[in-house]
Amino acid sequence: MTDKTFIKYKTVIDEWFVNGRNGTKAYQAVYPKANANAADIGFRKIYGNLRIREYVQTKVSEVSQKLDVTFENQLQDLEDIKVESKKESKYSDAIAAIKEQNKMLGFYEKDNNQKKIDNVVIFQIPDNGRGEI
């Protein structure tokens, strides 16, 4: 990929961050003649590029550092929401905060693993003469 192409692709990604991560619209902002289908395909191609993935990771990391978004801070914020919600009798907010904390801490890992297809055991039941009349 040329530097010129990389710069244009970075522009698409920057637009993607700004517009709420809508890849089709980000692509169309840079390539206005692209229809929705072509824009979707084009964005997926751009986003699949290794250099672009590294650029995305760099941008996310920079924003996280700037905003001091860490795992611990996120958990603490959720804890604060949970405590305040209980004080104000907004139990649905407290429950939502608890659920989000549980996800972050991996408490649903067992449930998530049960949904994986690689945990399914398929075997053939022996005929034992049932097919004969």
- Number of structural units classed as domains: 2
Q: Assign the CATH class of the largest domain.
A: Mainly Alpha
CATH topology title of the largest domain: Arc Repressor Mutant, subunit A
The largest sheet is: none
Structural class: mainly alpha
Radius of gyration: 24 Å
Organism: Galbibacter orientalis DSM 19592
Protein name: Terminase small subunit
Textual characterization of the structure:
Helices cover 70% and strands 0% of the residues. The chain is an all-alpha fold. It has two domains: 3-67, Orthogonal Bundle (Arc Repressor Mutant, subunit A); 71-114.
Quick structural summary:
The chain is mainly alpha-helical and 133 residues long. It contains seven helices and no strands. The protein is flat.
Question: What is this structure's SSE topology?
Answer:
Elements: H1 3-18, H2 23-30, H3 36-47, H4 50-67, H5 71-87, H6 91-105, H7 109-115
Using brief descriptors, characterize the structure shown.
mainly alpha, Arc Repressor Mutant, subunit A, 2 domains, 7 helices
